[in-house]
Amino acid sequence: MTAIHPLTAADRDEWLPLWRGYLEFYEADLPSFVTDVVFQRLTDGEGVHGAIARDDERRAVGLVHWLFHPSTWSVGPYCYLEDLFVAAEVRGQGVGRALIAHVRDQATDAGAAKVYWLTHETNTTGRALYDRVAELTGFVHYEIEL
């Protein structure tokens, strides 16, 4: 059974390979100082939250990061699920679903109006899960790098 726990500073050595796997999946390369800052934010309460999934043997097998922000379309905040990653060897065993449920519960407790996230259109494995637990809105994502 998967257990989800808030990310703490003591989890860094187990979080890091999952984070690197996530970056590799999206073919992203971040300088190590960015990873350091990200982990610090996730564990010191700067508004970005993190959790780690562990299997029955207490091995770290997944991560999720999220944040809350105000919205012009609701009184309560929105919850943006920014990063979700499950180790390849345990995909399809409910870890991703459990991590999404954890964020949904945190958002409910915070009075959020909704949880939303983005994924790449080629992420067929992830999208198979997302199609079961959420609604595909049809919005198209644009961005400007600064």
Which descriptors would you attach to this protein?
single chain; 146 residues; alpha+beta; Aminopeptidase; 5-stranded mixed beta sheet; 4 helices
How much helix, percentage-wise, in residues? 25-40%
The number of helical elements comes to: 4
Following the backbone from N to C, one meets helices and strands in this order, namely EHHEEEHEH
What is the strand arrangement across the widest sheet?
Answer: 1-2-3-4-5
**Low-pLDDT windows of residues:** none
CATH homologous superfamily grouping:
Gcn5-related N-acetyltransferase (GNAT)
CATH topology: Aminopeptidase
What's the level 1 CATH class? Alpha Beta
Largest sheet: 5 strands, mixed
Question: What can you tell me about this protein's structure?
Answer:
The structure is a single chain. With 146 residues, the protein is α+β, with helices and mostly antiparallel strands. The protein has one domain (3-133): Gcn5-related N-acetyltransferase (GNAT) (Aminopeptidase, 3-Layer(aba) Sandwich). Helix content is 36%, strand content 23%. It has four helices and five strands; from the N terminus they run βααβββαβα. It is globular and about 40 Å long.
Give the secondary structure arrangement, pairings included.
Layout lengths: L2 E4 L5 H14 L6 H13 L3 E7 L5 E10 L8 E9 L8 H15 L4 E3 L7 H10 L13
Parallel strand pairs: 4-5
Antiparallel strand pairs: 1-2, 2-3, 3-4
Q: What is this structure, in a nutshell?
A:
The chain has 146 residues and is of the alpha+beta class. Helix content is 36%, strand content 23%.
